[in-house]
Write a structure and sequence with these properties.
It contains nine helices and nine strands. With 206 residues, it is of the alpha/beta class. The protein has two domains: 96 residues, Rossmann fold (3-Layer(aba) Sandwich); 72 residues, NAD(P)-binding Rossmann-like Domain (Rossmann fold).
């Protein structure tokens, strides 16, 4: 079975994913460009594949209907807005996502960016590179209000990481997880209230 790896980041830090596929007897072809594929490139390179490991490239009705042998798409990530789900269903193509694996990485990056901004790390780094030593006081995350728009897997992981930072957390989501919010001490509210009362807003939506 031929599997085409469309996303250029797959196995970029470890060869283990490729070894696992090889061990199971799959034939593997990799994206040779090192970047996101355009639709015409995707059709040219992956037209004979039965399985596809996808990134953020577009899987439109035209693309999916042209890939006659394709049986399954495994999305490296949780978002599927780049896949025409109706077209996939009509072509009997099964869609899978990696629900948990990227969540911690994204949540840690989110936390790092918050610290970066509040402590003015990029500004101070740039000043140092220019040979300037000018103190610029940042601020603490502690006692600030964080508004999370989209309290799904990634949003919840951000909450877990920030437990020691003494932040008040507001959340907006069309599906409210009251059990989690009660345990984590989060207040659900409408979008207007969240935007009006948050010092920092973190968006985690498909």
């Amino acid at each position: 079975m031929l599997i085409y790896v469309a996303t250029s980041s797959f196995a970029s830090y470890s060869s283990l994913p490729l070894k696992l596929l090889d061990r199971e007897g799959y034939e593997i072809e990799l994206n040779p460009t090192g970047r996101k594929l355009a639709s015409e490139e995707l059709l040219s390179l992956a037209k004979d594949s039965k399985g596809l490991i996808a990134g953020t490239e577009q899987y439109s009705k035209e693309v999916l209907s042209s890939m006659k042998k394709l049986k399954v798409i495994s999305r490296l990530g949780v978002g599927i807005d780049n896949i025409d789900m109706d077209a996939a269903h009509r072509s009997n193509i099964k869609i899978f996502t990696t629900q948990t694996s990227p969540s911690l990485a994204v949540a840690e990056l989110t936390t790092g960016l918050m610290i970066n901004l509040t402590r003015k790390i990029p500004l101070m780094n740039e000043e140092m590179r220019r040979g300037k030593w000018k103190k610029s006081m940042g601020s603490l995350l502690s006692n600030k209000t964080l508004g999370i728009i989209g309290l799904g897997t990634i949003g919840k992981t951000v909450v877990e990481i920030l437990k020691g930072f003494n932040m008040k957390i507001l959340a907006f989501d069309i599906k409210e997880d009251r059990a989690f919010s009660s345990t984590a001490g989060i207040d659900y509210c409408n979008l207007d209230k969240l935007l009006s009362n948050s010092d920092i807003v973190s968006i985690h939506l498909n």
